[in-house]
Amino acid sequence: MKKLLIPFVFVTMILLMDSCTAGRKVPYFQNIDEISLAASKGHYEARIMPKDQLIITVSGVMDPRVVSHYNLSVSHTMGTSGSLSSSGGSMIGYLVDNDGYINFPRIGRIRVSGLTRTECEKMIADKVKMDLADSENPVVTVRISSYHVTVIGEIGSRVLPVSTEQMSIIDAIAACGDLGLQGMRDNILLIREDATGQKHHVRLNMNDANIFNSPYYYLQQNDIIYVQPNKVKAKNAALGSSTSMWFTSIGIVTSLAGLMVNILKD
Fold first, then answer.
1. Which H, E and C letters describe 209-232, residue by residue?
2. CA 229 from chain center: how many Å?
3. What stretches in the chain show pLDDT beneath 70?
4. pTM, two decimal places
């Protein structure tokens, strides 16, 4: 009887040790009381990238008609009868080309890639002002309307629009409903594309509070986040697939055996 108990106790101890190890990987920011967050100081501001869609408006002058030709909009719509009708319409976006340029009315081709929104607003305002009276002080507003990040894996699959042009890795996880117990917290994959189109990747550890000091804490437009399944989920998936295959194989063999028996009886 004692000999039979030894393997049972051994297996139970292994399972308990494995569950304790897995439990230690669940809480976020485990060392936050032991590190400095001084490096995280500062506000994030996105930089314009090729293929970004920009909405740019010019205002702030005494006569709005003076700057109307800077504000591209859909001014005509097709009616039900097939005729064109005038309307205020919506703003037309400027697509940043692969070289980082846009074509702006009356100014021409200007490079905006690499600029922050504030820097782009100032540059365009200075160029517009050269075309206006000295007493006019144009106000330019720039917005990246296409800003989004993509999340896949053990957190669901979602494309998250970012209207504020600022989203952290924590914001993205929270927007998807948080990480389940089957998602790896210490090995989250972030794939990022730079202004030249080159892809880069980095691994993020949400158990480590140094994530707040990471240059990857704030997500850049078009970032891809992949949450991998933990070992338990991966093993269960493999076991489930293998078990299903075995049952299918056994079923086929049993059917063939039964068929052969019936043939031989005849």
1. HHHHHCCCCECCCCCEEEECECHH
2. 18
3. 1-25, 74-90, 231-266
4. 0.73
